[in-house]
Amino acid sequence: MNSQMNEEWEACSAGSAPTGFVHPMALQTLAELGIQHHGWSKSMDEFRDQPFDLIVTVCEEASESCPVWLGKGVKIHMGFPDPAEATGSQEDVMNAFRMVRDTMLIKIPKILQNWPNIHI
Fold it and tell me: What is the per-residue pLDDT across 12-65, written as a single tens digit (0 to 9) for each?
């Protein structure tokens, strides 16, 4: 979201089970939009003591695997399927990554634009 709303918001990304790398197809789908990502896969534990205004969990299983955010901030869950678990041809899997990317690029900015009067 930093590419769209970096004047108002700064996004950090982390997960409950990081792999240490960002999936190459995720990087490719970002590059298709001219976004060059240079980060890595981080654990949410790295941010535990950092205060946030808003925490948006995005993986379908995130509400079960990390139901309690122990840091500061309002938590909202928006489940998206994990495109890395998509099956089929390489193009089918790429399309799964694109679908999640495109849906996130629509839904998450709406939440941020309406903060703090969020109605999901």
Answer: 888 878 888 999 999 999 999 999 988 888 888 888 888 888 888 887 765 555
The model's pTM is: 0.81
Domain assignment present for residue 52? The answer is yes
The phi, psi pair for 57, rounded to 5°, reads -90, 135
CB 16 within 8 A of CB 62: yes
Could you tell me how far CA 91 lies from the centroid of its own chain? 22
Q: Does residue 23 sit within a domain?
A: yes
CA distance 49 to 34: 32
Q: Is residue 49 part of a domain?
A: yes
